[in-house]
């Protein structure tokens, strides 16, 4: 069974092909090549401003958090899920230069038979805590309220999502203009930033369906059938070797497999204000490597060859996934971020300064590649084993 077949049988898609096909004829806003859709200023009716609205969820990471909570009783895992859902919104917005005064509204759907009120309380507290944490780093997020619904007929455990909105001067908008001669700066997804409490495994909120079922033991499907689709074939449901409390090595110590995979999605928003303040004219594109992972950039380029030949060594978590599954690297780099989850397309002479800014926040950064001429657009990537992989647009 191929990896694509395995993903399809789990009801997931690495690159959301059907979604993109469904929306391809929709209006793309004021700046069609911006990472997020940018609209005219509907609020102030000011031609010098624009509006940005975004919606996203924590995805199936909630299912793994549910398993962890049921097994350990540790409610703090839900704060991480809140962070996952918020970051998937605000970091996308950051890619178009929207880095402050963001309105935030939640949508939480739960199955009340499995998710009690104490979990809702932790989710709400987690939202406030994350907002305060971002405020400490100059990022102002304003909670407007939200909707919490008991929808047990359609949600097996919990679904956590947010909608965000902001108003921005058009001159501040970052529009992807990725051209030959630029270099690619990658921002590491793992390690421990100064605004993180512990080591981050780098998982983010993409690829969790695959990671959950490929890493964790069949025991969980038997014990908690509500944690996944009951119609999943047995050969793709919880087929991994690990239990949540199994000890694994990380740089500088050990953690458990459950905590490693559930590392909250890192936000890069604290880094972006000083980067844009000092180098706005030298940053020509910002890509959040979410759905599609290292191939995401192909949605925003034309007639260029993206070369990623100096990537980060994959963090331990992704090495463990590969060992457990034998998944070819070509699929791994399309499903998982594999070491960096945001990349900036910049003038070469800005690299050292931007790397220094990242280091001040405890985030490792490095030049991971470059842009050359090429038609049609393609991505050339040197994988962890040294093989060169090609992806077409």
Question: TL;DR?
Answer:
The protein is of the alpha+beta class. Helix content is 30%, strand content 24%.
Mean of residue pLDDT?
Answer: 95
Percent helix, as a range, is: 25-40%
The multimeric state of the shown protein is single chain
| Class per helix and strand makeup | alpha+beta
The beta-strand count equals 14
Low-pLDDT residue intervals, each spanning 5 or more residues: none
H-E string = HHEEHHEHEEEHHEEHHEEHHEHEEE
Structure explained in plain terms:
This protein is an alpha+beta fold and 393 residues long. It has a single domain, classed as PurM-like, N-terminal domain (60s Ribosomal Protein L30, Chain: A, 2-Layer Sandwich). Helices cover 30% and strands 24% of the residues. It is built from twelve helices and 14 strands. It has helices spanning 3-9, 17-23, 61-72, 77-94, 117-135, 208-215, 219-223, 257-261, 272-279, 316-325, 329-335, 351-360; strands spanning 38-40, 49-57, 102-110, 141-150, 158-169, 183-188, 247-250, 253-256, 283-288, 304-308, 340-346, 365-373, 378-382, 388-392. Strands 9-11-6-12-10-13-14 form a seven-stranded mixed β-sheet. Helix 3 (61-72) packs antiparallel against helix 4 (77-94). The longest helix has 19 residues, at 117-135. The radius of gyration is 20 Å and the shape is globular. The chain starts with a helix and ends with a strand. 46% of the residues are buried. The model has no long low-confidence stretch (mean pLDDT 95).
